Every structure is written in C-alpha cells, then in structure tokens.
C-alpha cells in the first residue's frame, strides 16, 4: 500500500499492555486487519506489570508506536498518564485505547461502544433490568454503555462490587444505575441482561464468584441475555449454566472484536469496511 504521495506506507508497531496478557487474541485479530488492508504494521502483546506501566506507555511513544490497547489491570491507571482524554474515556473513567498525536498521549475508550455492538448481535431489544458484576475499567465501560445506549424507559442497572459504597459515591442520585454488594447479586428482581466483568474464569484468575453461579442464573428473566467478557469461554462456567437455563449467551470475543474495530479506526483515521471486520472476526475463532 502507498501513501497519498505515492510512497510506501511506513511500518509501525502497535500493541496491548496487560498483566496477564499471554492469553490475548488481539495480536491475531489486528494482524488480520492489517493484512486485509495491505498495511505492513505489526501488533504485539506486552506483559507489563502495574509498576512499569508509565515506563511502557512513554517508551512506546518514544519508539514511535502507532497506538496501544490496555487491558487488565491498567485501564484506570492509564488515565493519569494521558495528556488528553476523549469524552467517553473521561466519562467512563478508564482508558483502553491510546493514540499518539504529535507527541501527545491521548486516551480513548472503545470498550463501551464495543460492548453495545456485541450485545446487539444477541438481540436488538431494549434492556429493562440489568446486572453488571465487577468494578474495574471494563465494568465501567459496560455500565456506561447500558445506561446510555441499551436501557429502555424506566430501566435500571444493578452494579455489583465488593465496595458498593465507593461506587455509590460516584453515581448521580436518582439515576438508572444503583450500586450493590455481592449479597444483593442474587434474589430480588429478575434481570434480562447479566454481564460478568470480573476476572472469574480468566487465566490465572479466581475460579468462582463470591456467590454461587447457579444463584446468579436463577435470577434471570425468561429469554435473558448473559455476557461474560472473559475469553475463552470457561467450560462449566457461567455461560454454560445460563445457556442450559435457556438464556442467550455470549463470551468476550464479540466485545473484543468490536472494541478492536473502533480502536483501529482511531489509529488509522478511517472506518473499517465489512471485509476487514470479517477478517478480524475469523482470526478470533
């Protein structure tokens, strides 16, 4: 591929920073996109511990990287490293995509839009009663997406975490999102959308929720959607139980796909066509 002036496109490196990160399928997905576009770029996964995040981000800028993604546990910590924040990153309070613009580190969040696009693959119906598990950067993006894009009239979101008081202090009074502890994750009103944003089931993560998974499934409304943003789908986990109970289920690969589509569009400065999205999806399966 050539530039507008007729010269070849200079190869750039992109990457994802995480701890852990060896399980990430982002490199295969973005490699497929670059190949479909005829671009010489590379995308790599880098294991970066929290104490080295600032060095890694600033080092990527110094080396001329085209951009970065951030995954667990860096999305909230990255806020302080950015010279500027896009509105959605500011609103959500987390960064999953970094664009280097003239030496400036600009933080974006494509997780929310990615989640909304993924959930619509299951059903286009409005959400009436949702429950989101976890309070990290991904959970913040998911809650924001549900409240701003997916929630129907008079709908509400139960946001479950280990420290509901801290979450409640951030939420506007009388809004559609209500903070709750794990003791409130089972029982109460049936939910038509359940989303796991914890690290339960992730490689090297915990194997069980603070409450039994079957109790979570028992609280689903008929025809509910259940999304576990962890991938690959853990055998015998939440999604298997929910699917056996008749729910529509989805693992984290569809959200990964769409946040990646939106992130790459930011890096390249153009939307990706259906053929490129199809190549990215195929690389994830």
From TrEMBL:
Enzyme class, top EC level, equals oxidoreductase
Instruction: List the catalytic residues.
Output: 75
The protein's Enzyme Commission number: 1.1.1.25
What's a Gene Ontology MF term here? shikimate 3-dehydrogenase (NADP+) activity
This protein's UniProt keywords: Amino-acid biosynthesis, Aromatic amino acid biosynthesis, NADP, Oxidoreductase
Q: Which residues bind NADP(+)?
A: 134-138, 229, 252
Q: Which residues form the Shikimate dehydrogenase substrate binding N-terminal domain?
A: 16-98
An example Gene Ontology biological process: shikimate metabolic process
Keyword Flavoprotein assigned: no
Enumerate the InterPro entries for this protein. Answer: Aminoacid_DH-like_N_sf, NAD(P)-bd_dom_sf, Shikimate_DH-bd_N, Shikimate_DH_fam
Name the chemical reaction catalysed here: shikimate + NADP(+) = 3-dehydroshikimate + NADPH + H(+)
User: Which Gene3D superfamilies did the record assign?
Assistant: Leucine Dehydrogenase, chain A, domain 1, NAD(P)-binding Rossmann-like Domain
**What positions does the entry give for shikimate binding?**
24-26, 71, 96, 111, 231, 259
- Pathway membership, UniProt: Metabolic intermediate biosynthesis; chorismate biosynthesis; chorismate from D-erythrose 4-phosphate and phosphoenolpyruvate: step 4/7
Database matches in PANTHER family: BIFUNCTIONAL 3-DEHYDROQUINATE DEHYDRATASE_SHIKIMATE DEHYDROGENASE, CHLOROPLASTIC, SHIKIMATE DEHYDROGENASE
The protein's matches in HAMAP family, at most eight in alphabetical order, are given as: Shikimate_DH_AroE
Task: Give the protein family.
Answer: Belongs to the shikimate dehydrogenase family.
Oligomeric state and partners?
A: Homodimer.
The role this protein plays is: Involved in the biosynthesis of the chorismate, which leads to the biosynthesis of aromatic amino acids. Catalyzes the reversible NADPH linked reduction of 3-dehydroshikimate (DHSA) to yield shikimate (SA).
Protein name (record): Shikimate dehydrogenase (NADP(+))
Gene behind this chain?
Answer: aroE
